[in-house]
């Protein structure tokens, strides 16, 4: 579990950093300019870290399923070797997803004015700058991003439904216990997948709230994840209580 959490934190660091420094710089500058290469690099990093994190969240849901439904087999089924393979799979899928998205936009003809109405180069806005009909390209982009988002979300939901059904059969009051154990992961999944699915399944330009959602899932969600997991972890709670008692005793 902690190995997967460590990788989630690493991906969150990339997700929160790919556009934030440039955004802060633009706030303090009159000229908000980014090179074409820099724009493509932002698209690549965003879709790589986002795609990899989606698949990693599925792996974490599977980890919770094994821990709750097959506790005696946990150390065998979730060995270090298995965890490494799950992380590598998430990175490979994130890389392939990101490369496919960049390939859509790299060779498009851009005539200008090349102005992106957002704080970073997001794919739906960038392809609108092309001097050609991008309807088919938009469908391909939505299909690619929508497929990985919706499929990952459904797999996570299926794993939790399986957990609840399994616990309900074998333990009285087990459903509440299972929900308590999985609540942190469910919160993270909802915060991450909700804005992504909303943005990529509806036309980008029709919702003024899209910028707010973009800020939410690229900055706030990665920052909230460590806090959510920390506050839901009993070991961390115990450590914080000990620290608080030591401070009170010292004073």
UniProtKB/TrEMBL annotation:
It is a multi-pass membrane protein. Its main location: membrane. The chain crosses the membrane at residues 43-62, 83-104, 147-167, 179-202, 214-231. Pfam families: 7tm_4. One of its GO terms (molecular function) is G protein-coupled receptor activity. Keywords: Cell membrane, Disulfide bond, G-protein coupled receptor, Membrane, Olfaction, Receptor, Sensory transduction, Transducer, Transmembrane, Transmembrane helix. Signal peptide: none annotated. GO terms for cellular component: plasma membrane. Residues 1-229 form the G-protein coupled receptors family 1 profile domain. It comes from the Eukaryota. Gene3D superfamilies: Rhodopsin 7-helix transmembrane proteins. It is found in: Cell membrane; Membrane. Belongs to the G-protein coupled receptor 1 family. This is Olfactory receptor. It comes from Sciurus carolinensis (Eastern gray squirrel).
């Amino acid at each position: 579990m902690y190995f997967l959490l460590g990788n989630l934190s690493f991906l969150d660091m990339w997700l929160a950093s790919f556009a934030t420094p440039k955004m802060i710089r633009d706030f303090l500058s009159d000229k908000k300019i980014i090179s074409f290469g820099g724009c493509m690099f932002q698209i690549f990093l965003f879709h790589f870290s986002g795609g990899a994190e989606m698949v990693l969240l599925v792996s974490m849901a599977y980890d919770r399923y094994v821990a709750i439904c097959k506790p005696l087999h946990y150390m065998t089924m979730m060995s270090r070797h298995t965890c490494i393979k799950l992380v590598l799979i998430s990175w490979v899928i994130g890389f392939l997803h990101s490369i496919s998205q960049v390939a859509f936009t790299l060779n498009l003809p851009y005539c200008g004015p090349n102005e992106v109405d957002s704080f970073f180069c997001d794919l739906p806005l960038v392809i609108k700058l092309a001097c050609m009909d991008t309807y088919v390209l938009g469908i391909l982009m939505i299909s690619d991003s929508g497929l990985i988002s919706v499929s990952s979300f459904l797999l996570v939901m299926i794993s939790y439904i399986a957990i609840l059904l399994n616990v309900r059969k074998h333990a009285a009051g087990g459903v509440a216990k299972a929900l308590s154990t999985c609540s942190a992961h469910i919160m993270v999944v909802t915060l991450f997948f909700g804005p992504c699915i909303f943005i990529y399944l509806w036309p980008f330009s029709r919702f003024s709230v899209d910028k707010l959602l973009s800020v939410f899932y690229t900055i706030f969600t990665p920052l909230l994840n460590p806090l959510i997991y920390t506050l839901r972890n009993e070991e961390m709670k115990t450590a914080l209580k000990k620290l608080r008692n030591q401070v009170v005793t010292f004073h």
